[in-house]
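Predict the 3D structure for this chain.
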Amino acid sequence: MFSTVTPVIDLVASARTFAENTRSANTKNAYDSDWRHFTEWTAAHGFESLPAEPAAVALYITDLAASHKPATITRRLAAISVRHQQAGVESPTRHQEVRAISTGIRRTLGTAQREASPLSLGDLRAILAHLPDTIGGLRDRALLLTGFAGALRRSELVGLDLDDVQTRDEGLVLMLRRSKTDQQGAGERVALPHGHDRHTCPVRAIQTWRDAAELQEGALFRSVDRHGNVGSRLSGGAVSLILKSAAQRARIDPVMLSGHSLRAGFATTAAANGATEQAIANQTRHRSMSVLRRYIRHGSVFTDNAVGTLGL
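Done. Predicted structure below.
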């Protein structure tokens, strides 16, 4: 027997909230944007968007193929499918014609994605050496070293609060409340040991930034204006901008760098220095070893290369 009876209207509202939380905010925003693009296209070409005919979707992705990457087209199809499922109608993306054209696009254009270049340890050292001796420079040093040594994603890096940083004799332990591979919010811990070089020690860098900014609670990494005033939590996009700006200051080409370069740089550098796959995965928290091996191949392209045995 139930001690209390919850009104059906409240249950419906709760169920809707749970259903909406099956996807991350970033994914939902991307799907919303993709759906808007599709509805605008169908309106301009005289087609219905919901329910959409398979022929309309087939023509849509054919049009996209002239200017968009296969990965973007795949995501657009996913957004169309989700909207149809939510409306309780069959998704046109399952139609044989749409599937055939989608496969043909991938085979014709290829599926290789433009990846951010891993940040090498040498470039990281050069970037750190050119940071200004200001409150903003201290923030940037702590941010870049934490992202690199922790192999953190941008969202994980800017999502850290002061309460998520635990001090141990060996260094720091970062508590990641939620991440790309932990959408349920179970939490993951990442260790940051003390560095051998005080200039590149992430533990020292974080403590120096915290003390200089007089942080007591809330976000660990925050905006800093040109007058040195500390503001609110950084956005994920700010990580890329900070890295690119710091790279330019060190006369390093920033074009192929992004916030992901820190995480990729860790995996690549660790692989080049002989770390095992499992040791690297323990820090990066990769669920797929095939994805991780892409970084390892970058790192071992010269060290694990048979050309050196040829005697050239």
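Residues 127 and 250 are 5 Å apart (CA to CA).
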